[in-house]
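Our collaborator T.R. sent over the components below with a one-line note: 'Predict the complex.' Nothing else. No constraints on interfaces, no templates requested, no preferences about which chain binds where. So this is a plain run: every listed entity goes in together, and whatever single assembly comes back becomes the starting point for the next discussion.
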Amino acid sequence: MELIKKVLQGDEKSAARLISIIEEGGDEGNRAISLIFPHTGRAHIIGVTGAPGSGKSTLIGKLAVSFADKGRKVGIIAVDPTSSKDNGAFLGDRLRMRNAEKTEDIFIRSMANRGYPGGIAKATAGAIYVLEALGKEIIMVETVGAGQSEIQIYSLCNTVITLLTPDCGDEIQLMKAGLIEIGDIVAINKTDNAGAEDLLANVAAYIEQHKTKSRQTRVLAIQADKGSGIENLTDALNAHFSFLNENSHGKDLKKIKLKTFMLALLKEEIWNKSLNVLTGNERFEGIVKKLEKGEIDPYAAAQMASEMTGL
Amino acid sequence: MHEKIIKVLIAKPGLDGHDRGAKVVSQALKEAGMEVIYSGLHKTIDQIIHIAIQEDVDVIGLSIMTGAHIQIVEKLMKKMKEEDIFDKTVFVGGVIPTKDVSKLKELGVAGVFPGGTPLSETIEFIKNNVKKT
Amino acid sequence: MAVARYIKDEKDRILDVILESGIHVKPSYTPDDLNRIGFDYEKDVADPGQYPFTRGIHPLGYRSRAWTTRQYTGFGSPEETNERFKLMISHGQTGLNVAFDLPTQMGYDSDHPMSEGEVGRVGMAVDTLRDFEIAFKDIQMDKVGAGLTINAVASIVLAMYQAVGEKYGYDPKTISATPQNDILKEMVGRGAWIFPVEPAVKLIGDTIEYSMTVMPRTNPVSVCGYHIRESGATPSQEIAYAILIANAYIDNVLARGYDIDAFVGRFSFNLNVFGNMWEQVAKFRAARKLWARNLKEKYNVKNQQNLFLRGLFGGGGYGLTKAQPENNIMRGAYYALVAALSGAQTTALCSYDEAYTIPTPHSALLSLRTLQILMDETGLRDTVDPLAGSYFIETLTKEMENKIEEEMEKIEKYGGMIKAVSNGYIQKLVARQAYEVEKGLETGELLKVGVNIYKEGESKEVELHEYNYESAERQIKALKQVKSRRSQRDVARTLKELETVTKEGRNVMPCLVECCKAYVTLGEMTDIFRQEFSEFQEPALF
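Returned assembly:
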């Protein structure tokens, strides 16, 4: 593909176009991914997750500039939710990365999740591959920010930063939500707000209790909008990446994550295929009617429907 | 296979800070099912083009309130030529006298929607005039 | 702009009226309504000139003095501005209201790339003291005050005003400037911001502190509910946010150890008049009361004079239409009526051809005559607060008071005005409301003559001023000349001093005056601030 060649040469316009093709999906999109995939695998993929309003965009903007100042080539993918009501989306994250926008060598791409679950868009992985092929060494992904459901980010990234703030709610809820489990680094933002110290202490204690030999989550305090703690964070990110690359466990983890992500895609595939089979199918409609009349229970109905898919 | 989703950049070029119209249009386009990026205030043409390229938008909408629309569009079109991105549709809104509309269209603007244009009109226009397929 | 929501039956009879602030208007009002709200004349309203000033800040109102009219001036070059100043004064205007071009407002010199196509377009271009020298030549600066529509770089422009006053032999204590100087509203509704919230508020505190001693006739802050209203805020939000913004500036100065009575009396407000007529009058009455109460109860202001809500009630920009523009002349007359019924001390009207550029002399004159006719021919000067005692107006005033307080509480609950503006809470809210209004206009739920009803009529084309390339060129040439003739040593010295003072967090004003006198450019001074403060980061939008 002509486009792929240009991307490998560093052409931004082609990279942007290629990401769009992947977003549109279908055969062309899949082919593009196959062609670009061989050029990936070396970049540091950093995911940033956290509740809406926790400061993800601000943080990513600051990190990007910090890395770029040190000569690193950075890409950013910011994912926002598509409205289920009207199918439209505001892609408002890059507005908050003013300085990153002005910096050469930082490529920012916004994506709507188009209903895809897990905090990212279906095409996010493809977009990451494209940015890698474009020559970006560090690629940061900002998730939608819905919280608990954002597990896909874990399998997509080398390092995940979980961003918490003092007003983000009950800490017990956070722990239950597994947010802390996902993060390789937990960053406490907006430390000038009340409750920051307590949050920091509680999270640190929780992590201490749950740490294992292979999982050593770090906790850091930052104030993204003021730029404080950013240096510490970039150091921690670099350290984590080195650790992953030098450690055999790190290499295993990469394989596990690849499979996990593939399984998530597979799940979508199977679901979509099943839906195709069932939608408009008379027998399926029949099952649904029986369910609605109360003649069968939901579990039995689901069982019958799944048998129809032939799997 | 659903209809292709339209991606729009609503941009505020230059120093003017009146963004009520740009924000209203952004909300309308989003509710019409489009993916909308708002550039924020005080953007240069270079910055706007930069965003349009990286985001591979289908449409660029400029909101201009100060009367400098001809100059701004001339600059934009020059840059679009340099970057070869004429597959993107350009429309202009804001304070635009009727007598300037033909000049703007000559320069390459596909549609002009001065303040007071019904939002539905702008939405229809975009849906019918997106170049990229 | 369309006003209330009307619920009508199929015979076009009004079943309900819902004002923008959310208040429902009944078919008629009686003494029962006054009882219902617990109306107490002394407590709720009182005589004009008596706390809480609901009826007005002065016992005699317009009987003592007609309102001050301020129409925009400030045109392209300093020379043209000077001419326009003299013209308006000869027509009877009693105060100057100066507009600046966008590069000036945004802290760029006329020769900066960002200024291209904007030099002198929407107002006067100011690069150095030389421009002010030309603009204010032969103007009696101790007799005519100047409203300066400047915000992000108000400190610089105020310093320049002092410098030019001194140059023409006026003692700074005798000249009167009213810089708009309200940065928080810029972030919400006007967009001419440069620096982040905290340093921007600090600069405002500097101007207030400085003016207390050096230029005591300065009205250092004009808190603008106006633009917030233009961006989509309801009338009750307009007042709520204005009071909270004023409080944010007050808090900054109090933190420096000053007594509130020493400065708050010179705060003024810039409030909008478009909307439902009754809601507006009730709004202004409630605003006077709430501002006075805010100062007395929250800040313990002792001097009665300092409790006055002084302000410019006027404008009405969003209410005007492009369709059938001559209709805007009538709208202007109605808005002027609202301002007069509300007891405005100062007023200005958007001209009928207003389109974000400055009005033609003809349309500016029409606006001025509208205001003069109202004051001198129709009886608006006869008595103070003529609507007082009306069952409707007193009830509505009380209800507006409640609504305004509700809006204030919402912000306090969020974490305060500064947080709300920095995080974009208010911006998001008003943008959403603006969108709902637009939808309402399109469905016809909100009525607008010439736009969605009574559309037959000539739609005269709005004439925009042609950009004056020659004038811009001359300005840039003049700037070059000033730069070549000034003392480079003085420039370097005063700029260095400004840098130090800014770094150390001291009051920048004395230094700015010295910079102006050395013909340091506006852009050079702003760059120091940009370097030290960095730039405002627009918050999340939707």
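Summary for T.R.: Chain B has one domain: 7-129.
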